[in-house]
Design the sequence.
């Protein structure tokens, strides 16, 4: 059983709380955790959790990047922590997790226009690299942002960012025709089926997670974990309030 979670925004401890919840509910260990971005790859937070406090994830954690990672230090932070405490799944690659071959498409440009770092943006060459693969080389697509055109609603107040979804995502859908597509980023539950693909959007990690069995079955689990906002999240939220008030060009 794979525990799928998204958007921890540096609150790595929530991953462990959700693992504990899942394992108590299942009466057995989960095999691993698949994290769908906005993991929170920031030096200060990583050091505090893994080094200063000496904490560890309870199960192996694999993650794709979102838009809220420190892309200026991304490679340096991976060199220090990747493979030791968690495993990064590079953008535009296929990785085997459990019984599945997963096409990994981290990154997102939608929302937080003023805070989007260049490294977060999905580029044409990422899409082209995926389309160069055979259509039968991936079973599942995992992304941070959703594919466009599947009906994920805008977050109220953020409509001016446009329709949710990343450019050329439909090309990936038509090329691979995956049985399952999982994403995060929008901080809300979302499920739909279209053209033989089942889509699941996950909320913030503090609201719940999904369990993925070995036969493409996805169970959604709502479980609220109390958390206290850090100064970093306060800064991001206050920036978002400015954007909401004045628009992305302000
Ligand atoms: Fe995000």
Sequence:
């Amino acid at each position: 059983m794979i525990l799928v979670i998204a958007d921890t925004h540096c609150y790595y401890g929530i991953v462990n709380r959700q693992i504990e919840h899942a394992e108590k509910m299942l009466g057995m260990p989960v095999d691993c955790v698949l994290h769908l971005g906005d993991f929170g790859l920031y030096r200060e937070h990583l050091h505090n959790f893994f080094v200063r406090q000496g904490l560890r994830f309870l199960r192996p954690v694999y993650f794709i990047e979102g838009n809220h990672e420190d892309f200026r230090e991304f490679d340096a932070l991976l060199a220090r922590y990747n493979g030791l405490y968690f495993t990064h799944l590079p953008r535009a690659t296929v990785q085997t997790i459990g019984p599945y071959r997963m096409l990994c498409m981290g990154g997102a440009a939608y929302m937080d226009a003023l805070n989007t770092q260049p490294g977060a943006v999905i580029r044409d060459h990422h899409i082209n690299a995926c389309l160069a693969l055979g259509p039968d080389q991936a079973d599942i697509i995992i992304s941070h942002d959703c594919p466009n055109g599947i009906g994920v609603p805008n977050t109220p107040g953020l409509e001016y960012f446009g329709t949710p979804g990343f450019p050329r995502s439909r090309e990936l859908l038509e090329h691979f025709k995956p049985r399952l597509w999982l994403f995060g980023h929008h901080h809300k539950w979302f499920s739909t089926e279209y053209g033989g693909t089942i889509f699941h959007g996950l909320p913030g990690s503090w609201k719940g997670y999904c369990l993925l069995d070995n036969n493409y079955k996805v169970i959604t689990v709502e479980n609220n974990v109390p958390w206290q906002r850090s100064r970093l999240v306060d800064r991001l939220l206050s920036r978002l309030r400015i954007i909401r008030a004045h628009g992305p060009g302000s």
Summary: The CA atoms of residues 15 and 53 lie 16 Å apart. Residues 38, 66-68, 108, 144, 185 surround fe (ii) ion (CB under 6 Å).
